[in-house]
Write a structure and sequence with these properties.
The structure is a homodimer. Chain A contains 19 helices and 8 strands. By secondary structure, the first copy, chain A, is of the alpha+beta class. In chain A, helix 4 packs antiparallel against helix 9 (about 210-230), helix 7 runs parallel beside helix 9 and helix 18 (about 420-430) packs across helix 19. Chains A, B: GO terms for molecular function: lyase activity.
Chain lengths: ~475, ~475
């Protein structure tokens, strides 16, 4: 009788082992300059998102939980309150914080928000271990490369029910922390196994506007860190947690493709494909929002002119946004296509301050919301998830008809944000929540732009003297 | 357009809401005496399993992780080392410990091991909150009633890939802790939502004999506790996390049946259906082990007489045990049908000390292992998971043929362990690991037998003065 474990020996090659072999031996000098620079930019953008959540529900619930269950001091920074705690709880609170205001980055084809799961874990571990800025950047890049490929592997069927950033995010965080811990390929594989068997996060919360989205990212970051630290201390995990017959794909996907796991390792830098978010809403609303903005500018339209808007979208947009018709919370408004297009039409943007001020209370926005419908478009759906196309049809009150197409929404790799735009976004987000003043924002930005040269990240967010 | 959230209002009735309404108003005086007594017995049995793991890999990895990430003191006892920490980390280490030696209880039809997920969470919270023994017993019963019904709801398809004790255990733990926190029905529903969206645990680890089984129970207990504490502090969760269109059943089951969730609430006490484990091996080996034991006694057979053994089993036994042919660790040996039947045949039992001493090293056991095969039996499979039937066919070396059928394996509700038998098991397990001596065992047993009268459980496991 053939032993079914025979192909599971450490020596046997399979895609997850190959991925770990590549990432565990990756060195800082292997990273192209462009990757290093973009990682710094993604890190700054992550810090902005985390600080923007200061004081907003449910983040204080996470802070209080960490205080109650964790130690009262430690090597790692909780960004929203600048206290220190253990790596697990810093990753936990920072993971929750950076996914609240819907401004954190997104990788299109994997539908993964990498920053909010990778950076909280890697930054906490780097502070704990006294690592350098270059170590932090390398480990973060490893987490991105793993997370994107695993997200692509899990496929569209997974994303229909599971919040990929919660599930796959656990593995991305584990790989980043494993890299900082210096784990060899086989030990990293154990970390991935322990991360995958903890992977969770269901979309069901969206219909009730419940607080689970932040719980998912908090847990993904913290549990991924747990998996790596415990692997370093000898906890073993399933080697084929991804493609094994009782692994993640077997349980949670119907269209998984192992070829993605090792896609162009060393030549494709998936991190560079990550999009920055410009609007403060669910990324599925962005292509249509940009197309509407372009159209209104081009035709000189005012919101009063609009009779009806059709957003032609991919199926996942309907899956995620379709349940939200009349939002009852600011967070839910970010998942309402009608509200987001209403904000664009009436106020010209869907910024963090604009959503907060107008999404639920401006009757002109509500009126526009009722004029918006989403329809599935075959061309848009076929391009997804690799490309997120914006297609708008608009009828005016006086009977005119317009169309507009945008192929690369603002913030996409082909239409990315510049460093000055990212600095501006950092200031807007951190001042929105009063987490920094302008002087401190300037100092923090300058620290991040010199991250690759920093000898230790332990004091990176120490308060700036005033 | 109909708002799809309309049936999700707090007022709308659905099975999970009904379950929470029943459990949140359940009082100690509602519990039949038999339920109270059995809960004490299950609790003692749980403590025995936890203490039996003292010093055994991977439990020290969990202890060190809790020390590093958690506080250095707190209200809650870590059983294996009698240190104190916060509720989260006590639940974490105790949840890992009590599922290691494969002696913890099992509910047949849900295929859930309730003790190892419910008691770590409930005991930690009860110590934290200074609750009484009666409070602890009531909350534990609530956790069992919820866990069993949710396990049954998730169905056999779930158990094929997912370790139900890890997934459903998270919700059972959350309900128990919610009960101690005094949450009302709607807040308990939020706790269940936050627990369900964290539910995880895949069987893939079993093929490489990895350490994930203890990680699953550690996380289920700790994450369930997290869900309840955070719900008490205002974190909301999906109300239909079980049967919603993007909930647990949608993502992780193909045969879920909501009728189980409210099955005979208040008249059926599922806790009473829980089996104690007699053999120190996977429960799927027990029916055949008992049948072999009975057969050998009845016919006066010696192990040298045996030519071949056929264990006629249900499909889940093949799913869980089929991957293990030649075990390489003691833990894996507990999942090897051939090894367990070999131990019964050669040594007359598969006790914790016997498995440790003989499973991997006794050539007579190895020789027997090669003579055992499992075959799917339609009658056994049809009865499962409600009843776990033992059916053995045995051919002797000299050409005789015997059959034996056992309908209620030792420890099943119809063939349960008495208090003296449980006391004996407690002594065997705790002395195996040198966690207690006989004097302390006697004292701890007596404390548990008076649990219902104890004013506070905070000092329940304080060291006994010698």
């Amino acid at each position: 009788m053939t032993d079914p474990r025979s192909d599971l020996s450490p020596q046997a090659s399979h895609p997850t082992a190959e991925l770990c072999a590549f990432l565990s031996t990756l060195e800082f000098s292997d990273l192209p300059d462009e990757v290093v620079a973009r990682t710094e930019e993604l890190f700054l953008d992550w810090v902005a998102s985390a600080l923007a959540a200061k004081g907003a529900h449910p983040i204080p619930v996470f802070e209080r939980y960490a205080s109650k269950m964790g130690p009262s001091d430690g090597p790692c920074t909780v960004l929203v309150n600048r206290t220190r705690t253990s790596p697990y709880f810093a990753a936990f609170v920072n993971g929750a914080s950076s996914h609240l205001v819907e401004q954190d980055d997104l990788h299109n084809s994997s539908v993964l928000h990498p920053a909010t799961v990778v950076f909280p874990a890697v930054f906490a571990a780097a502070q704990d271990l006294g690592k350098s800025g270059a170590d932090l950047l390398l480990a973060s890049a490893a987490g991105y490369e793993a997370g994107v490929r695993i997200g692509e592997f899990m496929g569209r069927s997974h994303y229909k029910v599971f919040h990929t950033t919660g599930t796959v995010g656990t593995l991305a965080a584990a790989v980043g922390v494993a890299k900082l811990l210096g784990l060899d390929a086989d030990t990293m594989l154990h970390a991935v196994g322990s991360a995958g068997t903890q992977a969770s996060g269901l979309w069901e919360f969206l219909r009730d506007a419940a607080d689970s989205k932040q719980l998912h990212t908090a847990k993904a970051a913290a549990d991924g860190l747990l998996a790596a630290y415990m692997a370093a201390d000898g906890l073993t995990g399933a080697r084929r947690i991804l493609d094994g017959e009782k692994g993640m794909a077997a349980g949670m996907s119907t269209d998984a493709d192992p070829a993605f796991l090792t896609d162009r390792l060393g030549t494709r830098w998936a991190l560079l494909e990550t999009s920055f978010k410009f609007h403060a809403s669910c990324r599925h609303t962005h292509p249509a929002a940009d197309a509407l903005h372009v159209l209104m500018q081009r035709e000189g339209l005012r919101h009063e002119d609009i009779g009806a808007i059709t957003a032609k979208v991919h199926q996942a947009a309907i899956d995620v946004l379709g349940g939200v018709t009349t939002p009852t919370t600011v967070h839910q408004a970010k998942f309402s296509m009608g509200t987001v297009l209403g904000l664009i039409a009436v106020h010209g943007d869907a910024s963090i301050a604009g959503v907060e001020a107008h999404a639920l209370t401006d009757p002109r926005v509500s009126a526009l919301r009722e004029k918006v419908q989403m329809v599935l478009d075959p061309e848009v759906d076929a391009a997804y998830p690799k490309r997120w196309l914006g297609r708008i049809e608009l009828d005016t009150q006086d009977g005119r008809h317009f169309s507009c197409a945008v192929d690369a929404p603002k913030g996409d790799p082909d239409n990315t944000l510049t460093r000055p735009e990212l600095e501006d976004k950092f200031r807007r987000l951190t001042q929105f929540s009063k987490a920094t003043d302008d002087t401190e924002a300037t100092e923090l930005i300058s620290r991040v732009w010199s991250l690759r040269d920093r000898a230790s990240v332990t004091g990176l967010f120490d308060k700036v003297a005033r």
